[in-house]
Amino acid sequence: MEKIISLCRNNDFRLAYTKGKSFVGPLAVTYVRKNRLGIIRVGITTSKKIGNAVMRNRSRRVIREAFRELSPRVSAGYDLVFVARGKTPHKKSTEVRKQLEKQLFAAGVFTRQEVKQKERDFS
Predict the structure, then answer these.
(1) Entry pTM
(2) Ordered strands of the 5-6 beta sheet
(3) What is the band of 5 on the pLDDT scale with cuts at 50, 70, 90?
(4) Domain that holds residue 63
């Protein structure tokens, strides 16, 4: 398993917000943008609307753990930004993982094998 590289620069977040596609759910908003680096970069943001520092940190931890389980299935070459919503700190990572899986599948960032497997499951 390769290490998840974090988005750190404000410019990278802004590009994901403006140029990327967004996928909205009740637990998180996902912004997806292709990069030319051939690696997956992930950023997680939480606003003060989520709550105090404890709640914001819990939201980040829950999202990070949910994505960690999905990361081996994601194709390289994408910047992903996850924005926590108000319900996020009150949910477990398994619930958030299911939501992120739906959003990432809709975004088309899963590997080709994964997409073919999903298509077989729906048939």
Answers:
(1) 0.86
(2) 5-6, 40-45, 78-84, 28-34, 21-24
(3) confident
(4) 5-122
